[in-house]
Specification:
Number of strands: 2
Mean pLDDT: 86
Structural class: alpha+beta
Helix content: 10-25%
Strand order of the largest sheet: 1-2
Distance between the termini: 67 Å
Shape: elongated
Bound molecules: zinc ion
């Protein structure tokens, strides 16, 4: 897939070289394999320069840590609890003459 992308970073367009030692453009999984990405699918691969590859890997590692620490169910809008209506305050539905 590096060859398909022409050894060009997908994020910054950095033009790497297939002969660089050490490699300056690396193969990256768009969807991390740990997240269910296809490991050998060319469609899930992209060329990234080394700095971008490192940054993406670090971000994925941080995201994985966050996901693991978020196993508790998330309460939605914990501060917004509608008080139960006690009757008497129900607005009348608009009648046929309401304008
Ligand atoms: Zn880059």
């Amino acid at each position: 897939m590096l060859h398909r992308d022409g050894y060009r970073c997908r994020q910054c367009g950095y033009q790497g070289s297939p002969h660089a030692k050490p490699a300056d453009v690396e193969a990256d999984h768009i969807v991390n394999v740990a997240d269910g990405g296809a490991e050998f699918d060319l469609a899930n691969g992209q060329a990234l320069c080394v700095p971008h590859h490192k940054r993406k890997s670090a971000a994925e590692a941080a995201k994985a840590r966050t996901a693991r620490s978020r196993l508790r169910p998330i309460r939605r809008h914990p501060g917004r609890i509608d008080p139960p209506s006690k009757g008497g305050g129900t607005p009348l539905p608009p009648g046929p003459n309401a304008h």
